[in-house]
Structures are given as C-alpha cells and as structure tokens.
C-alpha cells in the first residue's frame, strides 16, 4: 500500500505525521507499506509534477 500524506511542512504538524506514518507502516508491515510526504525528498524539478505523480501512484491519500 502506498499512502501519500498531504499536509503543511511545518514543525507543528510533525507529531501528527509521525502518528500517521507509524500507523500505516505498522498496519501494512507484511506488505511493506509506504507512507510519504513530499518534503521527505527534494529532487530537482517542479513540486507540482511530484505532487501529481504521488497522487497517481497512491493507494490512499490523507490530507490534513
């Protein structure tokens, strides 16, 4: 399962993201689930392209 999380990249949200990420990864432990937020990697290119790519490949999206 691929879980894409859409939320602000602010320190105030880090605790919320940690709970979401650990929950998704624990629930999907056997299937190697992935929980991802765009600020975890910063390759060159437009953020819009990366956002659309993650949305297309996600099994589930969580927006906060």
Structural account:
There is one protein chain. This protein is of the alpha/beta class and 64 residues long. The chain is 39% helix and 19% strand. It is built from 2 helices and 3 strands, in the order E-H-E-H-E. The protein has a 3-stranded parallel sheet with strand order 2-1-3, sandwiched between helices. The two termini are 19 Å apart.
Give the topology, please.
Blueprint: E1 2-6, H1 14-27, E2 34-36, H2 47-57, E3 60-63
Parallel strand pairs: 1-2, 1-3
Order of helices and strands: EHEHE
| Shape verdict | globular
Number of strands: 3
Strand content: 15-25%
Structural class, from helix and strand content? alpha/beta
Helix count, DSSP H or I runs of 4 or more residues: 2
- The residue ranges in which pLDDT falls below 50 over 5 or more consecutive positions are none
Largest sheet: 3 strands, parallel
Radius of gyration, in angstroms, nearest whole number: 12 Å
- Average pLDDT, rounded to a whole number, is 85
Task: Name the strands of the widest sheet in spatial order.
Answer: 2-1-3
Helix content: 25-40%
Tell me the distance between the termini.
Answer: 19 Å
């Amino acid at each position: 399962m691929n879980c894409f999380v859409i939320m602000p990249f602010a320190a105030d949200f880090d605790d919320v993201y940690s709970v979401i990420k650990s929950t998704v990864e624990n629930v999907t432990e056997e299937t190697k689930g992935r929980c991802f937020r765009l600020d975890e990697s910063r390759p060159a290119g437009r953020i819009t392209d990366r956002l659309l790519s993650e949305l297309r490949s996600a099994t589930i999206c969580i927006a906060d």
